[in-house]
Amino acid sequence: MEENKFTKLINAIVNLFTRQDLKDHISSLEKEINKKKLDIIDLKQVHEEKVKYCSKLQSEISEKNLKIEQITSKKDEYLNLYNAEKVKYSEAMRENSILQKKIEELEKEDQIEEEEYIVYTVKKGDTLIKIALTYGTTYQSIAQLNNIKSPYTIEIGQKLKIIQKKITDLVQSPISASHYKTSPYGWRTHPIYGDKRFHYGLDLGTNSRKVNCYAIADGVVTAAKSASDGNGAGNRVYVRIKVEGHEYYIMYWHLDSYSVKAGQTVKKGDKIGVVGKTGTSTGIHLHFGIQDSSTWNTSKYFNPETFFSKYGVTFR
Length: 316
Ligand SMILES: [Zn+2]
What we know:
There is one protein chain. The protein is of the alpha+beta class. It has four helices and 13 strands. The protein has helices at 2-116, 128-134, 139-145, 304-310, and strands at 117-121, 159-163, 180-183, 186-189, 196-199, 202-205, 212-214, 219-225, 235-243, 246-258, 265-266, 271-275, 285-291. A hairpin with a 2-residue loop joins strand 9 (235-243) and strand 10. The longest helix is centred in the first third of the chain and has 115 residues, at 2-116. The structure holds zinc ion (ZN).
């Protein structure tokens, strides 16, 4: 019995303790539950934020999709425009290359024309016929070329294009080295005598250098005379030439020396002598005279420049 009581007491105490344990256990569980509840609230908040963020992203995506759709729908339109522009560009390039070719052709023609034309400045007393005769052409040709209508009026200073009759290989300049015109054909005050005299030739200076002079065309030397006879022409050579069936009498005056003799045949370009200042001369130059006849006659003299220009030889 004693033993039973004791057991009962023990059991009661054990139960008491156990219940306290349970109570404690329950209380800690409750605490835990409360904590989880708080966690759940926190998580809910986080979840809501994430949902908000997702919906924001979703709307952004929708917006971008819309834009992509818009761009895609316009892509074909732009592509068509681009292709049209490309076609236009290649057409323009093709036209450009055609134009470029035309320009090159015109420039070539222009060059040829420039080579064929000479430009003449109209002087006092000129008429189209007079100019035409000088250059071996016709007044109709000059009028047509320069768009001059009947009655063919021209003005002093007017520039005329003239197609020169080119037979340059028939005649050459008497001097090939550097030279310049010192006195033209015509009236002048004589450099030594000081009076007005007619200058029956063309003076070509050579910068005081003694250079060769040549036969201007095929011909025969009719005279080669020394300055020792006191003639104002100094050492001088006369050559009879025939150009286009017509005979001319050519004179080379004031030579330093000459290398041909009377009766000798010369070919165009053969050396006649060396330019000098023998006779009545103030400096080294060639006095070049030309007569429109094989016989000596001062009335038959004419301007050498007119003669030369017909054959494409000009002097500066
Ligand atoms: Zn002279």
